[in-house]
Amino acid sequence: MTPHTRRDFVRLACCSAVTASMVSGLSKFGLVSALAQGTPGYKALVCIFLFGGNDANNMIVPIDAAGYTNYQSIRANLALPQASLLPLQIGGQANFGLHPSLPEVQTLFNTNKSLAILANVGTLVQPTTRQNYQKYQNLPTNLFSHSDQQNQWQTTQLKGISNAGWAGKVADKIAPAFNSGALFPPILSVAGNPIFSTGDITRPFTMSAGSTPGVQGFDSSAAAQARLLSLQQLLTFDTGISLVQAASTVTGEAIQDGLVLANALKNIPPIQTVFPAQNALASQLKQVAQVIAARSALNINRQIFFCSQGGFDTHSDQLPAQAGLLTQLSQAMSAFYQATQELGVANNVTTFTLSEFNRTFQPGSNAGTDHAWGGHQMVLGGAVKGNSIYGTMPTLALSGPDDTGSNGRWIPSTSVDQYAATLATWFGVANTDLPSIFPNLANFGTGNLGFLG
Amino acid sequence: MKRHFIALSGTLALLLTGCSGLVSGGGGNPPPSNLVVTPPSATLRGGNTQSFAAQVKGAAVAVNWSVNGVAGGNAANGTISAAGLYTAPEFPPASNAITIGAVETSDSTKTASSAVTLENPIPQIATASPMSIQVGAFNLTVSGAHFANGATIYFGTTALTTTRVSSTQLTASGTATTGQLGSISITVKNPDPGAVSSGGLMAQVVNNSVISVQVTPPTATIRAGSQQSFSATVTGSTNQSVTWSVNGVAGGSAATGMISAQGMYSAPVALPNPNAITITATSAADSTKQGSSAVTLENPLPVLTAINPNSMGVGGFQITVTGSGFVSGSTVNFGGQAVTATFVSPTQLTATGTATVAQVGSVPVTVTNPNPGGATSAVLMVQIVNSGTVVSAAAAVRFLEQSSFGPSAEQVNQLQQAGFDSLLQSQFAAPASVYPAPLATDMGLGKVQQQFFFNAVNNTDQLRQRMAFALNEIWVVGENKVSDATGYTNYIQALTNDGLGNYYGVMKDVTLTAAMGHWLDMVNNDKPGTGQHANENYARELMQLFTLGLNQLNPDGTPVLDSTGNPIPTYTQDDVMALGRALTGWTYPTQPGQTLQKHNPEYYGGVMVPFESNHDAGAKTLLGQSVAAGQSAEQELDGVLTIIFNHSNMPPFIGKQLIEKLVTSNPSPAYVQRVAQAFASGKFNSYGSGKRGDMQATVAAILLDAEARRGDLAATTNSNDGKLREPVMMMVSIARAFHATSDGSGFESRGAGMSQDIFNSGSVFNFFPPDNLIPQTTLNGPEFAIFNTNTSLARVNFINSAVYGGFNTTAKLDFSPVVNAGTPDQMVAWLNNLLLHGTMSDPTKQSILTAIGAITKATPPSTTDLTNQAKAAIYVVASSSQYQVQR
Q1: Closest Cα of chain B to A78: distance in Å?
Q2: Which of B5, B15, B635, B868 is most buried, by the most CB atoms less than 10 A from its CB?
Q3: pLDDT tens sequence across A116-127
Q4: pLDDT above 70 covers what percent of chain B?
Q5: Do A147 and B525 count as a contact with CB atoms less than 8 A apart?
């Protein structure tokens, strides 16, 4: 049922927790390891999910005179001062500026040209106009519900119940070809186990940044080893109770894969790049970098990572809240990019943001905003054709052509299917496999937005 | 008159020598003068007089008198009258030798003189002040006359540094010693010329400041938690004020007891060690003077008010004893025998024991406190009934897992004999757990979180607390935004108080807590101005998460589908906006002494209050129903909550979630419908008030339903039943299974390691959503949303800590029932019965016995060997998926 083989628990139990037998096991795959060690075949997708719904309207702001005046007149008490915005220089022109908390992002966009912006992305079944919306024609369900939209961004299943995430399905597709000798699951999360990471077959490995899971309390004594054996034996029994079996599957993989990871991480030198302190996202991305550094020991060619940053649901006091969050995001992304350069994998790793929705362009009554729809995302990596804004920025007019109603909730012009499919294609998914992962993709003109080379 | 005699003899001498000397005719020298002044010399004190006479050969002669050559004299040197009466000045001039001169009026060549020496007058003292001089430094003022420059006041024999104010007043300062106590002479001495002292004035040196303090009563015996009034009498000072202290600390301390400024002493609830203390009163007039009372503290008198349950069957029992005055070391006496008692608080003990067949009937129960001051409470009776068991052990275990935070073996035995209805009735009647008001120094939610676990481990109202916890996971308020201890306490107490009440009460009470107001921005949600809309946050989540859900539901909880097979939203964006407008105009409670403002300052000591002019009172439509214009904020709140409450989604939406919280993650639609019916009608069997939203009817329907009970029998167990225990439940269940003695500490951080940091889920969506597919299945498993490779091992490692590590110590788990169960087979059987309700498979049993077998032991095994065996078995069973899933 799983792509990696079950381990012989009796053999495992004979040794101490960090086991010599695992090291000898690796040598069986020595030949394949040698191939995996080189970077050319390796690719990684790193997802940063901004939970709560990031107010993209204040992340990228028009800075041409007329555009800014219009922005300021509607955004009122939530408008960012024009002088504080960080210009995005595209071909000698700067029509948009970034939130002042994003100087590192600005550098990556303008100077490194390794960062691209995707404008007005959102969940769409098909291209949708204001008239379509107001007639409730073929819309994703529960557009302004956090839980539904988070789910839809992670699965691209926009109606009904979703049973797997698109990253999980991508991993299902590419693992046989690229990860056949891998000793470790293709997806690793440092931020819980959202549906994003679960495929029809693939199950993720979840860990906390800075700490590899493992069972505690066992020494090499016969009594302890016998107890460990019993613990592991019980995980293999079929009790006939569905929830018990589901729990045993996860716990068994935790012990098994945790050992593999601990062993792989043991012998790699620490990352030299300095990550910002007191920045939870940075800690997550640092952990991701360390696992990427261990890819040869894990004998793995394709990996997907899941990270997250919370707190974006700014119904009140948005300005200080978002400023702090974006500072952390900018610094963490920049440090991570540097780390990929340090590891020589900058062209192999593509980092991208997701967020369940944008927020109302019109302010709410507590110096905050409410749930909206289409918003802007960022993609970062050596393979990204950066220094560009892909897609169409919305017309910033209340009750305008891009507004669902009168509060400035923009109808997306690019779908999550298209966004994710572009990433998946770069990652190695064949065109013929895309429709089974992205059910709405065929409704759109192009399945590849072209931001990856 | 000696001078006159000399003068006379001089004169006689002149006469006897004849006249030849006196008659001279011719020649150069004037003839010698025969003028004589008598007396020829004198010494005079200031102010005195002296008569001078001028004579020639004994006969008076007229002369002109002078003093120091000045006719008649002057003020400085003294004056002389024409008759020769000289008056000395009060004080001699600097040159105190003066000459009295006489010149014959008829012959100015005839002169004579007298030499006068002037001296200081004799000083006179009239009064001295003060006349009664306190030992120590003093200032003295002496009044009198003739005080010369340089006059000195003598205090006894001691010369004082004196200041001459005038000839009639002197001042000086000095120090009176205790050696001078009694009479003392004050004199004034004028200096030379003619130094002389005055007479003495008798003054008294006294010492009036001997202060003493007496404390009443001088000794006392006081019971912990009670009060005693002390009084102090101060002698030797008009200042009667004292400061009270206990063991040398002013005002006392929490450990030794506090004493008020008026001397009211309050003994602490817990005795200090040693239990003898000293109460001291210190004089405010002299801080070196004190009186004290020796106090012996004794344990309080134990008072017994309730025993729960107060009726039980034969066999093992666990009771909660409620009263007051309990201490660590209180013993419980059950029908003449001491039983194992655990101190929970001064008002609560738990006790476990075994009721025998011989005790069927009434059994007296008392509580005895140990020395110091040991005493026994009055008797309360419990009833032992022997009508056999009415439910199986497996059923009792499962029912308690579904309705409490986990059973102990004694509670299983009791439930087997009492039956489900009896348990439900006593649970509905059990008083609600309390969250004490936070101290001003309580920052953050640490104590509130600890209290949650304390209540869950120890208190009797288990089902109510399960409901409160379930509501806390639906009506989520999170620590990441609401960290005010008072605010969170009020909110969790509201859930606890309403947990077995009516759901409408929950809706209104929670909506108005300041904590929820802050969490979802209903507080200070302003009537929107131009270019703004009302805040939607609370309006949306109230409908989506707390009451109705996103999609229209059939009574059995399945979604209503439209003609294309898609779910139908329960509410539209317009509904959200209308509800947002309806919920405008509320602000934080007004602080005492302040006036209501549109935006009261952030404050959690009460419920939200309306500021009417900030309320959007325009007409609205919500869920197809009209909300009239012109209503007050509270009228409109009741109006919109009633519309929501009466919506057909509410019974299945809430009913299904409560089933998932208590019993199983995958209830059948039929089960959901039965529970929804109980919610909607407010009635189930004999339970409930008949009012829509009755929680007692709803929870009785959940627990007594055949689908909840089908797992009691192996034959009817359904393979998809059950739920993964959430970390909070798992931890407390282990604690309760092994008779933890816990103050609630140590749980929260371990829960956080399993992604369930109580009260801190990070968002309004709780730690896990009610709908969550277990990966690669079609089964619902909410708790699986936080179950992954990281947290699954965190659970295993929690069990390691509970058996072998820090949590075992923190919660003082008691493994003795397993240790004493007998053989390894019997140990495993004990664990199978309590933790797995008898469902352990044979391969599992064999695997554990093999592990136990690897533990070296003596023959027969020592207590250490048995303990190691028991621990190994407990570890393997508790960490297994078979235990981690409740079913």
Answers
A1: 11
A2: B868
A3: 999 999 999 999
A4: 96
A5: no
Contacts of B583 (CB under 8 A, 6+ apart): B522, B525, B534, B538, B539, B637, B640
**Residues facing A352 on adjacent strands:** A47, A379
Minimum CA–CA partner of B531 in chain A: A362
Q: How many helices (H) and strands (E) does chain B have?
A: 25, 48
Distance CA B96, CA B44 (A): 10
CA distance B255 to B281: 19
Q: Which two tokens stand for residue A34?
A: 């040698």
Q: Does B854 sit within 8 Å of A226, measured CB to CB?
A: yes
Query: Among all residues of chain B, which has the CA nearest to that of A246?
Result: B774
Q: How far is CA B722 from CA A241, B599, B659, B711, B876, in A?
A: 9, 48, 10, 9, 20
Instruction: Answer yes or no: do B790 and A201 touch at CB < 8 A.
Output: no
What is the Cα–Cα distance from B8 to A452, expressed in whole angstroms?
154
- pLDDT tens, position by position, B91-141: 999 999 999 999 999 988 999 999 999 999 999 999 999 988 888 889 999
Pairwise CA distance, residues B553 & B530, whole Å: 37
Tokens of A203: 């199950």
Strands B161-166, B169-176: pairing is: antiparallel
Which residue from A162, A207, A227 is facing B789, i.e. has the nearest CB? A207
> Containing H/E element for A265?
helix A242-266
Omega into B782 within 30° of 0, i.e. cis?
A: no
Digit-coded pLDDT (tens) for A35-94: 334 445 899 999 999 999 999 999 999 999 999 999 999 999 999 999 999 999 999 999
**Cβ neighbours, 10 Å, residue B621:** 11
Dihedral (C-alpha) B765, B768, B773, B779: value to the nearest 10 degrees?
A: -120
Closest Cα of chain A to B736: distance in Å? 23
Q: What is the pTM of this model?
A: 0.79
Indicate if the alpha-carbon torsion angle B393, B398, B403, B409 is positive or negative: positive
* Cα–Cα–Cα angle for A315, A316, A319, rounded to 5 degrees: 110
A320: amino acid identity, one letter: P
The 10s digit of each residue's pLDDT in A114-167 is 999 999 999 999 999 999 999 988 999 999 999 999 999 999 999 878 899 999
Chain A residues with beta carbon closer than 8 angstroms to that of B723 = 243
Q: What is the 3-state composition of chain A as percent helix, strand, coil, each rounded to the nearest 5? A: 40, 15, 45
